Amino acid sequence: MINYCTVADKNLSAPRQVIDNSQTLYEETTMRLILLGAPGAGKGTVAKLLTAVDGSVQISTGDILRAAVKEGTELGKQAKQFMDAGDLVPDQLIMGIMKERLKEDDCQAGFLLDGFPRTIPQAEQLKVLLADLGIELDAAVNLDVPRDVILDRLTTRRTCVDCSAIYNVKSAPTKVEGVCDKCGGKVVQRDDETEEAISKRLDVYNEKTAPLVDFYRREGLLMDVAATSSEAVVAAIRERTGG
Ligand code: ADP
Ligand code: ZN
Fold it and tell me: What is the pTM of this model?
């Protein structure tokens, strides 16, 4: 029924065909979600698990920014100082990125916003942007994790510089130290995952991002999930969204 293409077949038009052919499959299950939660709450891991199941796309502003820094683009140059200090990148820059990103074709199969919005102004501007695009959100999922768990997770977290795969020196180490299992890229501790930057990021989260929980509660979109394991979170989200 679905015309899966092989890797060799992959060209720009092929993935669209897959989406078109399986329209009936996606129609009922397309998910458009926001993932809320402190740094280290597991947004990235949950997003990767969910998108693997339903064919939606993970949009991580953190990944987009890190790629820009690595490539040394104008955006990267402007963002780096804020990121390394554990500060938020200005709303203006982020909204510029997201305006373009949400218009891309792959968003039609659903999307998961990971790390965006991060401030009330971003949430308000996103609301206007989605209304303009005629897109409706299904839910804003809040991953609730105790602070001590978060601190432990972040200091032991390691990230692949090439494919953004996430590892943990204690619970999910790479097979070969410092080398990505998936792509062979270098696996490192992020510049913003020193103790000092982490504690700054958690403060920034409490001050600027935590208010989004109430924002989305008022919008009638909030889904609170106790983030015990990533798998449990994924199961809860799928049950509640019918995904
Ligand atoms: P985490 O969720 O682990 O804190 P991210 O990968 O989402 O980290 O983001 C890393 C950094 O990128 C943030 O500390 C911040 O400087 C910047 N950033 C990412 N998304 C946003 C956003 N929506 N608004 C402002 N800054 C952002
Ligand atoms: Zn990798």
Answer: 0.79
